[in-house]
Write a structure and sequence with these properties.
This protein is mostly helical. It contains six helices and no strands. Helix 2 runs antiparallel to helix 3 and helix 5 packs antiparallel against helix 6. The longest helix is centred in the last third of the chain and has 39 residues.
Length: about 170
């Protein structure tokens, strides 16, 4: 279940009727939002190794945007990308809003993981709803990308938890 503070996307039943062109515009917009999210997150991180990982994720989102733009250009030659006006489920604005006051790096990464999980599940649900093999393949690809980001963040999260626990143990003494 998606937490209420993050459940602000378009109803899935409306999205199933989107054309492939509209779905591609939606996903490109989501990748732009994800990149901006990771760039803003990286600015808040002081641990250089973690900052590098978050900047890498921002770069990955940029690559995904570029790939989706190429797919769009091949499928709809000469047309400008049309972005939906409404908020779309996998965009990270609700998570970014929640992150605004968060100072703990572990909470920052946890929220980023949540955003990637929501996006991956969103695309997986869309895969079941769209009607053509072409749309299904696109949604599966996008879901897999988001799960990849989730697991990258999860590895960093677990390292941070171990480091935090180790740091606390070092401060406990006789």
């Amino acid at each position: 279940m998606v937490p209420p503070e993050l459940d602000e996307g378009l109803p899935l039943e409306r999205i199933k009727d989107f054309s492939l062109e509209e779905l591609l515009g939606m996903t490109i917009k989501a990748e732009i939002g994800a990149r901006k999210f990771y760039e803003s997150l990286a600015e808040r991180i002081e641990i250089q190794e973690l900052k590098n990982k978050i900047e890498w994720l921002a770069g990955e989102e940029k690559k995904h945007e570029e790939l989706l733009r190429k797919i769009y250009a091949n499928m709809f030659p000469g047309k400008e990308v049309v972005f939906p006006k409404e908020h779309i489920g996998p965009e990270l604005k609700p998570v970014a809003r929640e992150l605004h006051g968060v100072q703990d790096i572990i909470d920052l990464i946890r929220w980023a993981m949540k955003a990637e999980e929501i996006a991956a599940k969103f695309y997986a649900e869309l895969e079941d709803m769209v009607d053509t093999d072409e749309k299904k393949r696109l949604m599966r690809y996008l879901s897999d990308m988001e799960w990849g980001h989730y697991y990258n963040l999860k590895a960093e999260y677990e390292l941070l938890l171990d480091w935090a626990m180790y740091s606390q143990m070092m401060n406990v003494g006789p």
